[in-house]
Amino acid sequence: MPLNYESIFFDLKTKQKDILHLKRIYQQGSDLKKLPSILLIHGSVENGRIFYSINEKGFGSFLAQNGFDVFVADLRGKGESKPTINRNSTHGQTEYVLEDLPAFANKVREIKGKFPTYWAAHSWGGVMIPPFMVRFPQIAEATKKMVFFGSKRRIRTKGIERILKIDLFWNLIGKVSNKTIGYLPTTKIGFGTDNESRGFIKESNKWIYQDKWLCKDKFDYQKGFQNIKQKNSYFPAILHIAAAKDTILGNPNDVKLLKEEIDNSKDEFWLLSKSNKNKHDYDHNNMLTHKDAINDHFPQILEWLKKF
Q1: Predicted model pTM
Q2: Is 177 within a domain?
Q3: What is the rounded distance in angstroms from the CA atom of residue 236 to the CA atom of residue 79?
Q4: In a domain, 186, yes or no
Q5: Which 3 state secondary structure label does DSSP give 114?
Q6: Is residue 43 a part of any domain in this protein?
Q7: Do residues 247 and 157 lie in contact, with contact meaning Cβ atoms separated by under 8 Å?
Q8: pLDDT of 32-58, one tens digit each?
Q9: Is 168 inside a domain boundary?
């Protein structure tokens, strides 16, 4: 069945008058009330299009073709959300966690009558969702499972690529750009499809380099996960997916480090590689965008999501 791609815009009610964009994807003729919902969250220097294209390709389109009511978020200033990030953008990572993600979850509840049943994320999107779930346990309790592609918090991988992409570009050039023009214009540099705010650069750098996992308001996420485990409270299972050729932005060892930090016994780790009988040694982006993914690991992920 053909797919519908529906754009939903709503007011975040900020001083900057931010309008958020949510793409809804579903099969034409479906009984939408019966379809399980999944909310997809993109990472840094990108937008929701990492999950879909209008010619029915991508992970989001695949899920819609297989009976899901798919919602793809464009975080504040990204994709079709307005205004785009500029020198006047005052938000950062904390606002994404405490304002944007709750707003998207509530919009899905407004449409579906309940919070998203499943979540998925790429890269840094999967770093922000767990803290969000700690801060909003009622949404965590409504979530069955989550899938994270190439999501890492701390980058402990060494080498020249780390020096160039993380230490030099993200950290040093990011700081200089913040001071000179007020944001990081990654689109002009050719390092992504979307710019990043000065607040996001500052906060994400702390999470990358520091062992402590602290919010700007001093909330300790490591203690939050420890409390969940000690109290035997519910937290949704996460499938942490890494790619063999993702050498720095989601290195398998750093993805494992995030899994260990959350410390949920229900979580799983998968490595997409030829040695694990995948068709390719995938990298950070093409684990989602490669034409063979739809017949390779996407069906396995679908099976995992539906398994109780």
Answers
A1: 0.97
A2: no
A3: 28
A4: no
A5: coil
A6: yes
A7: yes
A8: 999 999 999 999 999 999 999 988 999
A9: no
